[in-house]
Amino acid sequence: MSAGTDAKEGMRLVYHRFSPFHRFNHYLVMISFFGLVLTGLPLKFKTSYWSQVLMDAFGGVAAAGFAHRAFAVVNILYFILEGSYMAYFVIGRKGPIFDDDSIVPGLKDWQDMKGMFRWFFGKGPKPLLNRFTYWEKFDYWALFAGTVLIGGSGLMMWFPEATTRVLPGITLNLALVLHSNEAFLATGVIFIFVHFFSAHGRPESFPADEVIFSGYLPVEHYIHERPLEYENRLKAGTLDQVVRPAPSKAKRRMFGWVTGIVTVFAFLVASYTLLLIIWPLFF
Amino acid sequence: MGGDLNSARQLAKEFTCSKRAAAAAVLAIVLAVVLASAALAASTTTLLPATTNTTAPSGSDQAAGSEDLTTRCLTCHSQEYLGTVQDDKGTQNLYIDSAAYHDSAHGLLPCNACHTGFSHDPHKMVNNAEFFRQTANEACRNCHDDQFEMYKQSYHGTLSRGGTAAGEKAPICIDCHGTHAIQKVGTLEYKQSISDVCGKCHGGREGHGGREATFLDTYHGKAITLGRESAATCVDCHGAHSILPVSNPQSTLSEANILPTCQKCHPDASKGFSTFLVHVKPTSTKAPLIVFAVAVFYLLMIIAVFAFGGIHTLLYIYRGLKDGMYFGKGGGH
User: Which positions in chain B touch A6 (Cβ < 8 Å)?
Assistant: First the structure.
């Protein structure tokens, strides 16, 4: 059942999954990630024809370097915002840290993963997934750790003179190896091997999942996708915290357009990046 | 009929018009060519005495002018299959790409500005490559004496005079600068070619191995490859004509001199900055242990994550297709 048919039938209730704060942060992640990949990867794959095309489009290596730093500032901004939110959540005890609802990995994730593989091979039912699945937790923490590593090493290379006043020169060798590899890893994870598929390519959400842009999904979809969270909330009587009347038709249509445009754009960026990377293997 | 007649007249008129225009154009082109060649001749003849006085034989050749001399040489040497002769080092192709020569930094010089001792056509055969190498350095010196003096003191220069086996391989001017297609200094293409030039000897796996590849993997190398002209290349750190081994105290990269060398571009650099290792291949066991460890860790991590993510994705798609979750009745919902 897609969002389109829901809209036609008239969506009654929606499940609110992401707050405006988290949606805003996701936009920042998207903008900075696309920008950093497009201005950074051409350096790693310097001999690729498409790297040269991209660099020339940016107005040269120096201009691309400036843009890379500008996108890095956006990156730092979302990192500060998300870090502050985390601190607020933990210190302010806004919710339990290790329960079913949490983004912190636990034993259930391991069991879910085994369950999913059994399901893939037709040897069992699809596991009852919770608010955050194990691949979503991987996405989240990989990005968080990656931001620290890439951001830290990137700042060292942004200010090499200041860095080597305190640390030995080999720090810059390490920073380059780390930055380059971690960025390649992140690009692969986001564009090809994990995120784009698990967010949009999964059979449950194909061809695009609106939830990170609108914040909500139809409640029927929610019950099917997060059965355990639904069950727990039903038992605890907290369903009314997350289930609300659907927004207006105009608003729903707007989110549909936003999702469509972003998805197409993301697909183009990912395709170009893939082309850039594999080109030197053949030419 | 009338219309046809009119249009025929019109055509005739246009024809005469275009004929006149064509004649004028031809005249203008001829005039332009004459003027341009006169100007060129004037500029080369004023240039020549300074460069050829010491080298070119006096008399008839100089009177004939450089254009004529070069043209005469190229009559034979621009034939692609001509001039392949046996000499003591095997075959030597004597073909000259005349377009590349005229585009080169020396494009306006007559052949005998460098090839001293060739004055008449047909000239005496010189079937010895070593002769060319010996005369080449001296020929360069006629105009580039300062650079030649620096070269003489350099490691390359010392080695080339040593008469050792290594000395035979030591580069002389033309090994780095090329011969007939000498590039104009300062262009991006020139700067991008530098690491290839050094890499001819310092790029291999043995000895001074991998210097070119490791340079190209640094930011400097990446930036110059993608067209950032200001990025440093080999010669900006190692020096060019007066190059010395890093172990030599006079080297631009010796213990005492390395920091000022970095500071040419990075004025705020400190001692620590200068200990950055340029020629390191992170995945080589020769790399510092920590760099090697991080590189190998990432290699394994990238393989593991991509493999696991890829398998997970493919299996998920397989299940989705099999259960008709992608197309059809929304079986998964």
Answer: none
